[in-house]
DNA sequence: TAAAGGATCCACT
DNA sequence: GTGGATCCTTTAA
């Protein structure tokens, strides 16, 4: 399992290195879920208009962002989708990386039932790719919720990351950022080239 | 207490 | 490629 020192570094160093890492979540009912991370975005609180912690703003919802590196920050977007972040740097530094998409490795049956209520063999090709190719979809497939997951430690026996194979890492502008303000142009999205589980393959890449 | 908006997803064209 | 759904969190009065 990746040590805490992996997370307690500059966010823009951690984010691209998360590509290819294998995430494991073990739920209370014993189900093992594994996925290979293929898409992330960095959010650097104090200087980032698009972050929930812009200017160091601290609320009931985002308090996990202020904890030590390797903490999970889970929030609900648009009232219904759960998104998971990995907190970086140290206590009092509200920075993190949003996990946007993974490639399913283990527990695919469970993911299929959670997402579509039917077994994997009944899914269309499109539905299989739609299991985890977006922040909210990944959250639903992995059974992520604020109860129990928010504030959880990535250095624990039921939630952790391990090394995995990594392909070519590309970078782009982030997705869903309003088309105004200086934060929109930052190339803080990282994803694996040619991976079908990446939510979007934009034109502007480096 | 009320109002506005959002780090998205899905169905439809 | 486009637009609507949907409800929680924040902020201001």
UniProtKB/TrEMBL annotation:
<dbReference type="InterPro" id="IPR011034">
    <property type="entry name" value="Formyl_transferase-like_C_sf"/>
</dbReference>
<comment type="similarity">
    <text>Belongs to the DNA glycosylase MPG family.</text>
</comment>
<protein>
    <recommendedName>
        <fullName>Putative 3-methyladenine DNA glycosylase</fullName>
        <ecNumber>3.2.2.-</ecNumber>
    </recommendedName>
</protein>
<dbReference type="InterPro" id="IPR003180">
    <property type="entry name" value="MPG"/>
</dbReference>
<dbReference type="InterPro" id="IPR036995">
    <property type="entry name" value="MPG_sf"/>
</dbReference>
<keyword id="KW-0326">Glycosidase</keyword>
<keyword id="KW-0234">DNA repair</keyword>
<dbReference type="GO" id="GO:0003905">
    <property type="term" value="F:alkylbase DNA N-glycosylase activity"/>
</dbReference>
<keyword id="KW-0378">Hydrolase</keyword>
<dbReference type="Pfam" id="PF02245">
    <property type="entry name" value="Pur_DNA_glyco"/>
</dbReference>
<keyword id="KW-0227">DNA damage</keyword>
């Amino acid at each position: 399992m990746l040590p805490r020192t992996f997370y307690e570094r500059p966010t823009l160093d951690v984010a691209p290195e998360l590509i290819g890492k294998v995430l494991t979540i073990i739920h209370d009912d014993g189900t093992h879920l594994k996925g290979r991370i293929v898409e992330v975005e960095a959010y650097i609180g104090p200087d980032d208009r698009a972050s929930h912690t812009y200017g160091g703003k601290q609320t009931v919802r985002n308090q996990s962002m202020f904890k030590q590196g390797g903490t999970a920050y889970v929030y609900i977007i648009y009232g219904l989708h759960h998104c998971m972040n990995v907190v970086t740097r140290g206590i009092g530094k509200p920075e993190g990386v949003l996990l946007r998409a993974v490639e399913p490795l283990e527990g695919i049956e469970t993911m299929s039932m959670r997402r579509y209520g039917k077994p994997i063999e009944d899914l269309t090709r499109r539905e299989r790719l739609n299991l985890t190719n977006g922040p909210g979809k990944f959250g639903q497939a992995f059974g992520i919720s604020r109860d129990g997951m928010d504030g959880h430690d990535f250095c624990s026996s039921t939630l952790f990351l391990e090394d995995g194979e990594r392909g070519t890492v590309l970078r782009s502008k982030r997705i869903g950022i309003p088309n105004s303000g200086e934060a929109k142009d930052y190339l803080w999205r990282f994803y694996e080239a040619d991976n079908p589980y990446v939510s979007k393959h934009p034109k502007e890449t480096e």
